[in-house]
Structure formats: structure tokens, C-alpha cells
Amino acid sequence: MEKFSNQQNLSRRNLLQFGVGLIGTGSLTAWSGTGALAQTVEHRAFRSQQDLLVAADPGSHHTQSTLTPDQSLAQLMAGNQRFVAKRRLNPHQDIARITEVATGQSPFAAILSCADSRVVPEIAFDQGIGDLFVVRVAGNIAITEDIASEEYAVGVLKAPLLMVLGHERCGAVAAAVEGGELPGVIESLVFAIRPAVQASQEETGDRLTNAVKANVRLQVQRLQTSSVIASAVQEGKLKVVGAYYDLDTGEISLVN
Ligand SMILES: [Zn+2]
Question: Would you say 152 and 134 are in contact if contact means Cβ atoms under 8 Å apart?
Fold first, then answer.
């Protein structure tokens, strides 16, 4: 088991290095129009990154969100306030909305959330179909495939906000805090979270809560190793923020 875990560590490390290298040298994983295959395309074959991103998604129709990053964040947080106050509007959840977005999407926010069954972004932010581009993975970790998914949301769909959403009593972060042997390939999650546990271990207060928040900050940083995401931020078209979901109240607060 230990040997197996070490091999998993090694392969995950290699994958992370490969992912950062791939992004750093200007190549991208292009999404085919049918979504079945992905292929690596050299950046220099295209006049610009924008050409590449459009070429990656032929045949679909996107009308990008007209919200600014700040407006997008305000809309999310207002939805969470409705949720907490039991005044949900449940917008965009009827058959008319299905028809409206059937041939194209323009989500106003992209979210990297934990897979935890109690943290459901569409409900917690009181949004509906086509509003949020949500990537969910245990521990809300920004490993290569998650970064690639959010690159699609930012580079192709032009979402003006990207949020990493961690939460209270996260099991994946708890596993990283507690250490010890884990079944299957769960170690690969812990490997991506461990630097946040180390970074927060001197902080006062609840150890797990501190680690969850440090992990949110770490994954916000990792997302910005993407040239697609970093350049959108630089151009003022995107904000990347971290947030924390309180399991007891449903309230979401920003993590700075
Ligand atoms: Zn979690």
C-alpha cells in the first residue's frame, strides 16, 4: 500500500509539473466541438490565443455575460443572502430557460467547488440553468483537468468571475490535516492540499478551518498559473476570488 501510494504521489507530481509546463509554454488543450476528444495544439500555429480558443469550440453560439467582475460577485453574494434568509427566487429553472440556453451558454460566474454533497453552488447562490460553470472535485483542488475546465469557462465562455469555494469541516482537507494511510487513490487529493496544511499550521484558532481557508488561497493561486486565466485578470476582464461556505448557516463569505 505504501509503495502504491508513493507511485501515486510520483505520477501526480509529474502530472502537475506537466500541466504547469504545458500552460506555461503557451500550448493549450483544445476542446473539440463535439466534446469527445481533446488534443494539444501549438500556440504558434494560431495568430493569437483568442483565435485558438475560438477554434477550440466551433459550431456553438455564446453570447458572453455583460456583467463586470464586481457585478458578477455582487450577484452571487446577493443570491447567497436570499438563500440564507429563506427568500430564494429559484431563477432560470423552468422549461423556457432550457430552450433559451439550448444552443449556447454564457454563465456569469465560474466556480471551483468541493464535491461535498452539502455544498451545492446553484442552490447556495440561488441561481439556475446556464448561470454558473461549476467544477466540483473533493477539496476544490486546482489540478490540471480542473484548471483546463476553468480555462474553458474564462477563455471561451468569457465568465467574468472565477471563485474557489471551500467549506467548513471539509473531509478532504481533514484527511490532509490528520495524515495516515488512505484507501484507493485518495492520496492524490491530499497531495494537492498538503501545502495549505503546512502553510496554516502556525495560525491560532481551529486547525481544520484554518487549513480549509489556506487551501482556498492555494487553489486561487494555482488557477492563476494558467496563462489564459492570468491574462484575463491582467486585462481586467476577470476576478479570481476565494470563498468559504458555512455548513451550519449556508452563508458564504470571501476568503482574503
Ligand atoms: Zn469538502
Answer: no
Residue 136 CA to ligand 1 centre (angstroms): 10
The residues whose Cβ lies within 5 A of ligand 1, an ion, are: 114, 116, 170, 172
User: Could you report the per-residue pLDDT of 26-56, keeping only the tens digit for each?
Assistant: 333 333 333 333 333 333 333 445 444 444 5
For the chain, what are the domain ranges? 62-255
CATH superfamily to which 62-255 belongs: Carbonic anhydrase (3.40.1050.10)
Q: Note the pTM of the prediction, 2 decimals.
A: 0.78
- How many alpha carbons fall within 13 Å on the CB side of residue 156? 25
> How large a percentage of the chain has pLDDT more than 70?
75
Q: Which residues pair with 109 in a beta bridge?
A: 132
Q: 85 alpha carbon to ligand 1 midpoint, in Å?
A: 24
173 C-alpha vs ligand 1 centroid, how far in Å? 7
HSE of 57, CA atoms in CB hemisphere, 13 A: 20
- Residue 12 Cα, ligand 1 centroid: separation in angstroms? 20
